[in-house]
Amino acid sequence: MREELKLCPGCFLKDWAGGPCPRCGYQLDPDAFPTALQPGTVLSKYMVGRVLGRPGGFGITYLAFDPVLNRRVAIKELMPRELVARRPDGQTLQVQTREDEALFRYTLTSFLNEARVIAQFSHPNVVRVLDFFEANGTAYFAMEYYEGETLAEYARGAGGRLAGEEAVALILPLLDALDHIHSLDEPILHRDIKPANIYLTGRRVPILLDFGAARVALGQQSRSLSAVLTPGFAPYEQYSTRGNQGPWTDVY
Q: Are the C-beta atoms of 154 and 200 separated by less than 8 Å?
């Protein structure tokens, strides 16, 4: 379901008139992300806004608005593009072949199971999962939204290098976060740690993002999909379907 847009999809300024937003500069372009949900789409209690970053191989992340708590959140949509496609209604996902049905159901179940685990703990350097639900034939995370930029963007702005002291100050909190998630009764492996998945808030607090539950699920199957790892950041064991993965995989 879509509602008439009265809030800017870029910042949720009230009484938006539809042109360039006077506060954030956002301008609606329905063709910018053809596979994404359109701004104004209602998911559970949330109103979908703009796409955050670029759609990945396993999902799309949106800025969204929670009218009940009057705050912005980030919503991750499970959309493994090699398995599903958006129907003509612009919202529902459909598995592309019968052969992919079982794999997608397994992926969706794992996505929701991991959301349940992540939602149970809180660490200042790990993204907070606030809600999770099924809709449109797939599943969604609602996460805390942080103002800032990724470490990749920050590093590019710094000429591609960080001073040693600054790098250590960013890495130590992340190592503490990894120790925390690896020590759970049901340990979670991130398996895609890279500068693009580390967010720096306005106060330069590093936040580990995008746990890629779908990557974990798909990685356990015999079929190999294109976005399971990031070359240059993935350790040797991730390049093999029989690789022995554990906490050391994230530390790498």
A: yes
